[in-house]
Amino acid sequence: MVKIKDLARDLRKKQTPEEKRLWFLIKDRQLGYKFRRQVWIDQYCVDFCCFEKRLVLELDGSPHRNPMTKSGDLSRTKYLESQGFTVLRFWNGEMTSEKKVINQIKDALNNPSSVSRLNVKQKRLTSSPARGEEERK
């Protein structure tokens, strides 16, 4: 039986280049808050989490275009929100505009009720980039 800690450790070792880049930008309290990576929240392993601000960050690649995966992402987000977390999802391709991503994260950390954060979350759950768009950005 695979232990949860072992699975999380394995996921940290196999991070995508985009996850590695985001981790480099948010680790060591660079945004003023502690983030953990590949951490379990109940039955879900999230990419990054700031428990102090109850903020979850997810980076999604092309498999998340699949309707079944989108449905699972929506269920996962609804569950995490029901537990008091805010979930921000970004396409991997958005990491090429890392300043924009970091600004959205800062906004969510510093303005919990910000409209822009809610718009990002809602837009991300309901739309997907055109094929290849995430790689082009």
Automatic annotation (TrEMBL):
Among PANTHER family, the record links this protein to:
BLL0828 PROTEIN (PTHR38590:SF1)
- The UniProt entry's coiled-coil ranges are none
- Domain DUF559 per the UniProt entry, residue ranges: 3-109
Name this protein carries in UniProt: DUF559 domain-containing protein
Q: Which organism is it from?
A: Candidatus Doudnabacteria bacterium RIFCSPHIGHO2_01_FULL_46_24
Q: Which InterPro entries match?
A: DUF559, Endonuclease_DUF559_bact, Restrct_endonuc-II-like
Superkingdom in the source lineage: Bacteria
